[in-house]
Task: structure prediction
Amino acid sequence: MKIQINNVQLDVNEGITVCNVFRTILRLESDGKAIAINDTIIPRDNWDSTILSKNDKVIVIKACSGG
Result:
């Protein structure tokens, strides 16, 4: 199925979770990151259980320090 991650369209397996996206597709550590799906922030506690759907728009936001 197709989803978008930060405006890049990707083909992923049905039933993939937010946590699996970090591990298998983005290959990123989840520390310091936030996720929004279709403009809704997903709490970190729900990443293992949040299953992505066809045409979901995922935004990965990385926290940075400074000011």
Observations:
- The mean pLDDT is 88.
- The beta strands are 2-5, 8-11, 33-37, 40-42, 57-62.
